[in-house]
TrEMBL record:
Species this protein is from: Thiomicrorhabdus xiamenensis
Keywords of this entry: Membrane, Transferase, Transmembrane, Transmembrane helix
UniProt key word Membrane: yes
PANTHER family per record: RFBJ PROTEIN, UNDECAPRENYL-PHOSPHATE 4-DEOXY-4-FORMAMIDO-L-ARABINOSE TRANSFERASE-RELATED
Protein's recorded name: Glycosyltransferase
Residues in Glycosyltransferase 2-like domain copies: 28-181
Length: 326
C-alpha cells in the first residue's frame, strides 16, 4: 500500500491543506488549454488515486468551460493568460508549495492510478524526478509523427548530454520540491519538458523512468502539439541548451569546422604559390587567414565559457545537494 514518508518536513499551501499533521504534502499540477471534455474525469481519477493531494488546474486562457468545470470538480483553479505550457508550468512551480510535485496533462491520456506507485518509488529510491515513459508501449501511440519525433529527440538528448532518456516529453512526472524550486525555466511552450530533463543533467539530480500506458484522446479532443512547428522549436531549443550547458564541446566542434574550412580555403593560394611562386588569389588568402583567427577565437570562447559554466554548476549542485530532498 502507498504511504508517504512521515519523516519529511512538510511544505504546504495551508489554505488548501487536507493532510494529517506531519505528513508530506503532494501537489498535482494540471496545465490545461480547452480541456472541458476531459478535465472533470482527470480530476476525479487523481482524487481517487491521491485523496490527500491538492489538485491545481492551471488554465492557459481556455476559450471553453475548462476553468468552471475544474472548479466544480473541486480543483484549485488558477489562470495563466499568456499561452504556452512552459509559461503555465513556470507560474505553477513558482506559486505552489508542496513536498512532492506531480505534473499531469489534462487530456485524460495518462493513467492517474499509477501516481501512488510513482510517488512511493520517488521516496524509496531517493529520486528527484520520476518520469512516466510512454514509448515502451508503441501500440498505445495514435500519431506516428509524434512517436518518431520523440524517439529522435530522445536519441539526441542521450547523445549530447550523456544521459539515457526514453521519453523526454512525457507530461506525467513526479518531482521533489528542491528540484522544482531550483528550476529556472525560460521555455514558453512544449519545450519545457526538455528543460526539465536538461535541468536534471545540470544538477546531477537522481532521475528515473517508469513505463506507463498512454491512452488515445477521446473523440473531438485535439492535441495542441503541432509536429513540425513545435518540433522545430524544440530542435533549436535543444542546441541552445547544448551550447549553454556544454560550451567546450559546442564551440570545440564549431572551431573544428571553421579550421577545416579555413584549411580548404588556404589550400588554393598555397598550391598556387608552390606551383607558380606567385599568389593571385589574395581575397581567398585573406578569407582563409580570417578563418584561422575566427577558429582561435571560437575555441577561446568555448574554453572561457566552460570554465565559467563549470564553477557555476558546482555552486548550483552544492546548494541543491545541501537542500532537503522533498
Amino acid at each position: 500500500m502507498f504511504t508517504l514518508n512521515p519523516t519529511l518536513q512538510p511544505h504546504t499551501d495551508k489554505a488548501h491543506d487536507m493532510r494529517p499533521p506531519c505528513m508530506p504534502s503532494v501537489a498535482v499540477i494540471i496545465p490545461c488549454l480547452n480541456e472541458a471534455q476531459t478535465i472533470a474525469k482527470v480530476i476525479a481519477d487523481v482524487r481517487s488515486a491521491l485523496p490527500e493531494s491538492r489538485i491545481y488546474v492551471y488554465d492557459n486562457n481556455s476559450t471553453d468551460q475548462t476553468a468552471d468545470i475544474a472548479s466544480a470538480a473541486g480543483a484549485v483553479v488558477r489562470k495563466e493568460v499568456r499561452r504556452g505550457k512552459g509559461r503555465t508550468l513556470k507560474k505553477a512551480f513558482g506559486e505552489v508549495e508542496a513536498d512532492i510535485f506531480v505534473t499531469l496533462d489534462g487530456d485524460d491520456t495518462y493513467d492517474a492510478s499509477r501516481l501512488p506507485e510513482m510517488i512511493e518509488r520517488l521516496q524509496q529510491d531517493h529520486l528527484d524526478m520520476l518520469v512516466g515513459d510512454r514509448l515502451q508501449n508503441r501500440s498505445s501511440h495514435d500519431r506516428t509523427g509524434h512517436y518518431l519525433g520523440n524517439r529522435l529527440f530522445s536519441k539526441m538528448i542521450s547523445t549530447l548530454f550523456d544521459m539515457p532518456v526514453m521519453d523526454p516529453f512525457s507530461g506525467m512526472r513526479v518531482m521533489s520540491r528542491r528540484f522544482i524550486k531550483s528550476f529556472p525555466s525560460i521555455a514558453s511552450g512544449f519545450e519545457v519538458e526538455v528543460e526539465l530533463t536538461i535541468h536534471a543533467f545540470d544538477l546531477g539530480a537522481a532521475i528515473a523512468e517508469i513505463p506507463v500506458d498512454y491512452r488515445l484522446r477521446p473523440e473531438d479532443s485535439h492535441s495542441k502539439l503541432r509536429t513540425l512547428r513545435d518540433g522545430t522549436k524544440i530542435f533549436f531549443k535543444l542546441f541552445w541548451l547544448y551550447q549553454l550547458k556544454k560550451p567546450l564541446q559546442f564551440y570545440g566542434y564549431a572551431s573544428l569546422l571553421l579550421l577545416i574550412l579555413s584549411c580548404i580555403t588556404f589550400a588554393i593560394p598555397l598550391i598556387e604559390f608552390i606551383t607558380t611562386e606567385k599568389v593571385s588569389h589574395f581575397p581567398t588568402l585573406i578569407v582563409s587567414m580570417g578563418g584561422f583567427v575566427l577558429t582561435l577565437l571560437t575555441f577561446a570562447i568555448g574554453l572561457i565559457s566552460e570554465n565559467i559554466n563549470s564553477h557555476s554548476r558546482e555552486i548550483k549542485r552544492f546548494i541543491f545537494r545541501s537542500s532537503q530532498r522533498n
